[in-house]
Amino acid sequence: MLDSRMNSKIKVLLADDNELFREGLARLLEESGGITVVSKCDSGDEVLSRAKSYRPDLVLTKIGLPGCEGMEATKWITEHMPRTKVVVLTDSENEQDMFAAIKAGAKGYLLKNTALEDLVRSIELLARGGLIVSGHLAERLLDEFSSLYGRNSKIDGEIKLTEREREIVELVAGGATNKEIGETLFIAENTVKVHMKNILEKLQLRNKQQVAAYAVDRGLISEIGSYVGEPGST
Questions:
Q1: Which of 47, 190, 61, 75 is nearest to 122 (CA)?
Q2: 158-159 and 154-155: which strand pairing?
């Protein structure tokens, strides 16, 4: 079910050059109740022209479309239509394809073997501004990003967390579960787990309780349990 804050169905433009897959997925998405497929197409050129015409909330596309290549279309939409999110739906688990898609501006990189329920949930989260990457690729992506901070992660003895990591630490200190953190920040629960793994490694801590204590000690939060839930919730 869609979040109560969303007043209308999510408008999706679906692009794939496999007609059977395209038509079947469009029907399943429509049947989910919270999504309307405003247009379907099979080439990169059509993605651009129909995105301009329909102004969808989200473009669900594959990488190697005929005509204007998928990543070029993604770059154009990201630059000229910032309210429209582009999500890659693909068979490719190649990390370089994923990095190229994210660099081009895609807000999601999902595999075609994703369960329908998870795909619908991902679309809902993405429409609200989340960033979602399928399965083990999410951990690889975060590892790549975290490596950018690696050699400079400590300045004057201080651990440097990203803005997202600081948000998660604050919510953990407030007693929030992974599910509650995901709902609050509009990211997938699996993404929260990957962030937590990265936080624990950076801070050289073993569990959430130690993270909560760290947050209080560093002044990120005044007291444990002041945000969501109670200490000890899972």
A1: 190
A2: antiparallel
CA distances, 214 to each of 185, 191, 207 (Å) = 21, 21, 11
Residue with tokens 């209080």: 216
Convert the pLDDT of each residue in 66-105 to its tens digit: 877 667 888 899 889 988 999 999 988 888 888 888 888 8
Same domain, 180 and 153: yes
Q: Are residues 68 and 15 in the same domain?
A: yes
Select from 169, 153, 162 the least CA-distant residue to 218: 169
The CATH code of the domain that includes 183 is 1.10.10.10
What pLDDT, in 10s, does the model give residues 32-63? 989 999 999 998 889 999 999 999 999 999 88
DSSP string over 41-56: ESSHHHHHHHHHHH--
Can you give the pTM of this predicted structure? Answer: 0.60
DSSP 9: P
Q: Is there a single domain that holds both residue 89 and residue 174?
A: no
Range of the domain at 86: 10-135
